[in-house]
Amino acid sequence: MPLRTLSLDVVGADHPNRRPGKQGKIPRRYEIQLCEPGEPISLELEPDNPVDPNAVRVMSARGIQIGYIRHERSMLISGYIRDCLDIRGIFQRVMPWGAIIRITTDGSEPELPPAPAPSAQPLESRAFVDEDPGFYPDPEWPE
Known about the structure:
Region (Disordered): 106-143
Shape: globular
Largest sheet: 6 strands, antiparallel, barrel
Order of helices and strands: EHHEEEHEE
Number of domains: 1
GO molecular function, one term: zinc ion binding
Domain HIRAN: 32-81
CATH topology: Alpha-Beta Plaits
Helix content: 10-25%
Keywords: Hydrolase, Metal-binding
Structural class: alpha+beta
Number of strands: 6
Protein name: HIRAN domain-containing protein
Strand content: 25-35%
CATH class: Alpha Beta
């Protein structure tokens, strides 16, 4: 029985798009920055991928590749696609390595999960505040 709802990592954002046409000219990271949470995405099999025959590319609502499903999940998701499950997906959020998407496998519309608590966000996304910057001005000396 397939999992009904999944959040999946999208990786490979730093690699160039190789497909001809407008797709090859738009960097993946740029396209990821254009994606809005809740915007539809699509998944496509790439059986001729030299690294992973189960590769699943992730396409934005504008038809531009933003990356791939992480290898650890690509076999599962490619199997769902080959089994003709009604997979629907949305963009969830930008991450330092690429993005996260949300999919359903039963034809229902995916919904965004609640936003993570600030303390649960990855370190890369937290602003660093130096409480003691180590900078102390010289005392003013009389002339």
